Each structure stands twice: as C-alpha cells, then as structure tokens.
Amino acid sequence: MSAALLPKPQMRGLLARRMKFHLLGAFVVSMGCAALYKFAVAEPRKQAYADFYRSYDPMKDFEAMKAAGVLESAPPK
Amino acid sequence: MLASRVFSLVGRRSISTSLCLRAHGHAGVVKAEDYTLPVYVDRRDVPLPEVAFVRDLSAQQRALKEKEKASWSALSVDEKVELYRIKFNETYAEMNKGTNEWKTILGGVLFFLGLTGLILIWQKHFMYGPVPHTFSDEWVSAQTKRMLDMRVNPVQGITAQWDFDKNEWKK
Q1: Among the four residues A51, B6, B23, B31, which has the most C-beta atoms within 10 Å?
Q2: B149–A61: do the CB atoms touch at under 8 Å?
Q3: What is the C-alpha separation between A33 and A31, in angstroms, rounded?
Q4: Closest CA–CA distance from residue B73 to any residue of chain A (Å)
Q5: Does the structure show a pLDDT above 80 at B124?
C-alpha cells in the first residue's frame, strides 16, 4: 500500500465541472429537440399546406361535396 | 411557566415518561438513550461520521489503538486496514456499489402488468356486454365514406390518403 501512491484525485471545482457539463448538455439537447421538431414536423407541414392550396379549387370541391349529399342546405339534385 | 402549571393540574405521575420515572431512582441524572447520541452513517456526502463505527473495542483492538499512537510507519498493512475498519463500516467503493435490485423491480412490474392483462381478458370475456352497433364493419365503412365525402382533414389527414380518381386508398 505504501509502495505506489494513488494519484491525487480532483479536489476542487467539482460542482463547477458538473454544472458546465450539464448546462452545455441541456442547451444542446433542448436546441436539438427544437431544431428536430422544426425540420421534421413544422416545415413539412407548412409545405404540405402550401402545396395543397396552390392548386385548390373551392368550387370544384363544393360541387363534389354537394354531389355526395353531405350538405343539408345544398341537396344533390 | 405554563408547563409547570399544567403539571400541577394534571398531576406529575401521568405526565412522566418512562425516562423521567427512571430518573427519579438515579438522583435526577438520566442515562443518554442510544437514539439521542450521534450515530455512524455510511453516506457519500458525510465522509467523516460523528462517531467511529465500532463502539466497543475488543482487547486486541484496544491494543492496536495504543499502537496507533506511536509512529504509523510501524504499522503493518493489515493493521492499517483493521484501524480503518474500526473507524468505518464500508469503503466508498462498497457504499456506492450497485445492487441487482433493478431486476427484482423490473420483474415485479412486468409480472403485475401481465396479471392485469389476464384480468382484462377475463373481464372482456365474462363481464362486458357487446360493443355498440356503431362499431360494426358496415357502420364504420359508411362512417368513413361520409368523412371522405365531407373532405375531412384534406391536407395531411384522412382525405389526403384517399385517391378520389381510383376510388381507393393511396399507396
């Protein structure tokens, strides 16, 4: 036991090191989640809506719904 | 002051605890109960507990403690370890060692989940009546057709999955 001394462990700055690690990690994880949501959910959804309404004809849609008989005040005949 | 008033009202005898009763026989000095003295704890955030682990030393241990008063380089490794074990119960490594408790917990949780599943199966088979008629296949398909006719959720939802030209679900 007295032959080889163990290396002196880190005595100071333990909380500071832990805080630095966790602050950085929290920032990266939260920013990452936000970025992931933006590019995986929000942007595709905006694109889908833009594409849908680019070539949308409301009158054609109305005629289709009327013909199917789902409009109470606009019967099919 | 008020406490002594209460004493005279209710009577000393009924308020005395067992400790006080014992004190009356020992000239008023109460032996300190174990729970009132500082205790030894194995905790990561308490590196030097208030008392040593071993309270009553054997003759051998007392001799070792005497030897400790001299130069420490005269102590052998085993003696140093013995002195450590007198002062502390577990080393930090032993204290922080993980257990296999998680296996028991996981097993218990899964077991009770399974048991709950069996109970639910029994309930469905023996207890519940038939589901409402609105769950039948004909009703659900008529319902879905009406949703498509109304163009429900046309952008990303159900109507977006239907091919109106081929009259079938999109691949």
Answers
A1: B23
A2: no
A3: 5
A4: 9
A5: yes
ipTM of the complex: 0.77
Rg of the Cα atoms in chain B: 38
Q: What is the mean pLDDT of residues B125-147?
A: 97
Residue with the two structure tokens 């309404």:
A53
**Angle between the N-to-C axes of helices B77-87 and B59-68, in degrees from 0 to 180, rounded to the nearest 10:** 110
Compute the distance between CA of residue B78 and CA of residue B65 in angstroms, rounded to an integer. 14
A64 has pLDDT over 90 = yes
Distance from CA of A29 to the nearest CA of B (A): 27
Residue B33 pLDDT greater than 90, yes or no: no
> What tens digit of pLDDT does each residue of B36-87 get?
999 999 999 999 999 999 989 999 999 999 999 999 999 999 999 999 999 9
Name residues 68-87 of chain B within 8 A of A (Cβ).
73, 77, 80
Q: Give the whole-angstrom CA distance, residue B126 versus residue A16.
A: 61
Strand residues in B25-130 grouped as ranges (E): none
Could you give the residue range(s) of every CATH 1.10.442.10 domain in chain B? 26-97
Q: What separation, in Å, do the N-terminal and C-terminal C-alpha atoms of chain A show? A: 100
* Residue from the list B77, B156, B164 with its beta carbon closest to the beta carbon of A48: B156
> What span, in angstroms and rounded, lies between the C-alpha atoms of B141 and A59?
27
Please list the residues that pair with B163 across neighbouring strands: B168
In whole angstroms, what is the distance from residue B117 CA to residue B120 CA? 5
